Amino acid sequence: MAYDAIWDRPREECGVFGVYDPQAAIAETIYYGLFALQHRGQEGAGMTYTDGTRMVTESGTGLVMDVFPRLPAGTTRVGIGHVLYASPDVVAADSVQPIQGRTGIGEISVAVNGAIVNADVLRERLIADGAIFRTPTDAEIVLHLLARAAGGNMTERLKAALVELDGAYSMVVMTADALYGVRDPQAYRPLCVGRTATGGWVIASETCALDAVGATHIHDVRAGEMVRIDADGPVYLPFTTPATGRKLARSVFEYVYFARPDSVIDGLSVYEARLRMGDILWQECGFTGDIVMSVPDSGTVAAIGYARASGIPYTEGFVKNRYMGRTFIQPTQAMRERSVRMKLNPVAQNIRGKRLIVVDDSIVRGTTSKIIVRLLREAGAAEVNMVITSPPVKYPSYFGTDFSQHETLIAATHSTDEICTAIGADRLHFLSQDGLAQALREVPTEEISFACFDGEYRTPLPKEEHT
Questions:
Q1: Per the domain annotation, does 253 fall within a domain?
Q2: Average of pLDDT values for 191-203?
Q3: What does the alpha-carbon distance between residue 29 and residue 25 come to, in Å, rounded to a whole number?
Q4: Separation of alpha carbons 462 and 343, rounded Å
Q5: Which H or E element spans position 77?
Q6: 145 & 76 share domain
Q7: What does the angle CA 174 – CA 169 – CA 57 come to, to the nearest 5 degrees?
Q8: Whole-prediction pTM value?
Q9: Low-confidence winner among 69-73, 308-312, 433-437 (lowest mean pLDDT)
Q10: Domain with 358 in it: what CATH number?
Q11: 62, 63, 211, 299: which has the highest count of C-beta atoms within 10 A?
């Protein structure tokens, strides 16, 4: 699970990509697909590819371009890839996917995005049954389940294995001659299918990855659905799990900040949703000032929406250092502040003497927001008015977005006025939950999980959370 301790943001826990295309250079297609998903994970990357007879997995820590300085030649037919976001308590080298193994029906490889909440129970059972694990990943659990599942082919085994899983996930699985994509029964994590110009097929966490490889978006994998792609094209198959019958719970965080703004998730443009968030923020709070600016990048589109609605000009207030990596040392306050200063630099000539409307995506602990406000005041801002495109985060997340300690969430113990005082802003407004639902109006409200805002979890919590 992933939480950026220095940058005070919940972060996504990986991205997955798969391709079936006998006419294309598979490794190259995977590379560009993963590159487009790099925002979902920067600690590691990996790919598995095959020519129909031999399966090879290559992976490493770092960015996609660092892990694959050279691409293998001659790879055809089918392959999958993964980008990793690792948290401070995870050794990234142990967690890079895909995970490949040999089973009774041949070599397979698995990559998972999200969190299987009963993973510890499954792992303990598998170890008791003789399984040997070499990684802490959920993907290896799936691999062992597939190796042991009943069924004479991968489709049958995958259906049998999925019955065992509970949680928020999407995944890609490959054999020597077929590609599979799976989305959890409540549709927490996005997954889509596209068609390439050469007649092949791709599966990805976001549509921006389809765009990157020149594929046309064909289908959003439905809740509790798997897709099998081979020489005959895609076949979409529902599967049955213990979660069948629960409410859908699409992750609201995808629209607020996880996804790239140029992606479309379940028929809703992320860009349009964020524009509306800014518009609705203006309708709700009516904060006036001299300029609207954002904390880049995920606040930028909403800031444009706020500026358009209010008539206040949008101006660039921060320049972001896009070449700064992340570190998972346990930071002191001084180190955390230096990190923020390295990542964001105020444009003083745009800020000095101005009343600022600052649009950001979230406040989790409040530490970074406090530093941001101070940076803007040091740059000469006359006022710093913060508007946030999500409601207050009052409840932990256990489904792949790791801010799982209630006491670390500032909104769990402080009112909006108290948070405003704590971060040093002049005014503060969080987008209401109703306002956020309105911004996401193409997706039925009853299908979206707002659990971190209202505490209404739609999936049983991990076992330890009940004790």
A1: no
A2: 97
A3: 6
A4: 35
A5: strand 77-84
A6: yes
A7: 30
A8: 0.90
A9: 69-73
A10: 3.40.50.2020
A11: 299
Please tell me whether residues 211 and 350 are part of one structural domain. no
Rounded distance, CA 182 to CA 311, Å? Answer: 44
Which alpha helices (DSSP H) does 288-347 contain, by range?
Answer: 300-310, 333-343
pLDDT digits (tens, 9 = 90+) for 115-162: 898 999 999 999 999 999 999 999 999 999 999 999 989 999 999 999
Confidence of residue 6 (pLDDT cuts 50, 70, 90): very low
Phi-psi category of residue 52: left, alpha or beta, with phi > 0 → left and psi -120 to 50 → alpha: left
Q: Do 4 and 11 meet the contact criterion of CB atoms below 8 Å apart?
A: yes
Q: What is the pLDDT of residues 63-114, one digit of tens each?
A: 999 999 999 877 789 999 999 987 655 657 788 999 999 999 999 999 999 8
What single-letter amino acid sits at 244? T
Instruction: Measure the CA–CA gap between 434 and 426, rounded to whole angstroms.
Output: 24
Paired tokens of 252? 């609201």
pLDDT tens digits, residue range 256-269? Answer: 989 999 999 999 99
Name the nearest CA neighbour of 381 among 259, 260, 278, 290: 290
Please say whether the beta carbons of 438 and 276 come within 8 A: yes
In a domain, 78, yes or no: yes
Domain with 326, as residue range(s), is 269-450
CB of 179 closer than 8 Å to CB of 163: no
Nearest to 168 by CA among 116, 122, 214: 116
Which of 200, 184, 146 has its CA nearest to residue 18?
200
Radius of gyration of the chain (CA): 22
Mean pLDDT of 405-422: 89
On whether the CB atoms of residues 459 and 246 are closer than 8 A, the answer is yes
The string of pLDDT tens digits covering residues 360-371 is 999 988 988 999
Residues taking part in catalysis: 14
CA-closest candidate to residue 194, choices 178, 184, 181: 181
Query: Residue 343 and residue 120: Cα distance in Å, rounded?
Result: 36
**Contact present, 298 and 364 (Cβ < 8 Å):** no
Of 195, 212, 246, the domain-final residue = 246
Res. 422: pLDDT tops 80: yes
Is the Cβ–Cβ distance between 170 and 183 less than 8 Å?
A: yes
CB 224 within 8 A of CB 248: no
Residue 459 lies in a domain: no
Q: Is 304 within a domain?
A: yes
* Torsion on CA atoms 120, 125, 129, 132, rounded to nearest 10: 0
State the total domains in the chain. Answer: 2
Could you tell me if 48 and 109 are in contact, meaning their C-beta atoms sit under 8 angstroms apart? yes
Residue type, 172: V
Residue 243 confidence (pLDDT): 57
